[in-house]
Amino acid sequence: MDRIESCNSLWLLDSTVMQFCRLPRGTDPANAVSAPWQRYYAFEDESDTGAFRVALDARRTRWLASWRHVEPCARCTDDRTREVVMPPPGTVGAGSSRPRGAGDS
Ligand SMILES: [Zn+2]
User: Fold this and answer.
1) Separation of CA 104 and ligand 1 centre (Å)
2) Gap from CA of 93 to ligand 1 centroid (Å)
3) In what order do the strands lie in the sheet with 63-67?
4) What are the structural domain ranges in the chain?
5) By three-state DSSP, how is residue 98 classified?
6) DSSP string, 9-57
7) In a 10 Å sphere around its CB, with 0-12 CB exposed, 13-18 middle and 19+ buried, how is residue 93 labelled?
8) Rounded CA gap, 49 and 68, in Å?
9) Omega before 99 cis (within 30°)?
10) CA–CA separation, 67 vs 95, rounded Å?
11) Pick from 102, 11, 97: which is nearest to 49 by CA?
């Protein structure tokens, strides 16, 4: 059983039966027995970016993607500073060019 922490969820992946389940962060993983498990058809992990995704259909046309939560976490920091005055363009340090848009629900 693989266990992956994203910023919003705890993902549990059972590769032997190809099923995964997502729990809100902070939930006791013991609750996973009563959580809805969903079939997945592929798992991809980008160790350099922390991104990972699962294919929701056999033809791999629908993917559910997220990012691993790490400390310190740039994504969580982004969320916290979103409503603060932004620095002028060009002053943001290198390394902030992460792919975005897939979302993490
Ligand atoms: Zn995070």
Assistant:
1) 10
2) 19
3) 42-46, 51-55, 63-67
4) 2-81
5) coil
6) EEEEEETTTTEEEEEETT--GGGGGGSPPEE-SEEEEETTTTEEEEESS
7) exposed
8) 9
9) no
10) 15
11) 97
Q: What is the rounded CA–CA span in Å between residue 78 and residue 67?
A: 13
Q: Is the pTM of this model over 0.90?
A: no
pLDDT greater than 60 at residue 72: yes
pLDDT at 82 > cutoff 70: no
The Å distance, Cα 34 to ligand 1 centre, comes to: 25
Residue-wise pLDDT for 25-70, tens only, equals: 878 878 777 788 999 999 999 988 899 999 999 999 999 999 999 8
Contact assessment for residue 3 and residue 23, using Cβ atoms and an 8 Å cutoff: no
Percent of all residues in the chain with a pLDDT value above 70, rounded to a whole number: 76
Residues with CB under 5 A from ligand 1 (ion): 7, 69, 73, 75-76
Q: What are phi and psi of 42, to 5 degrees?
A: -165, 155
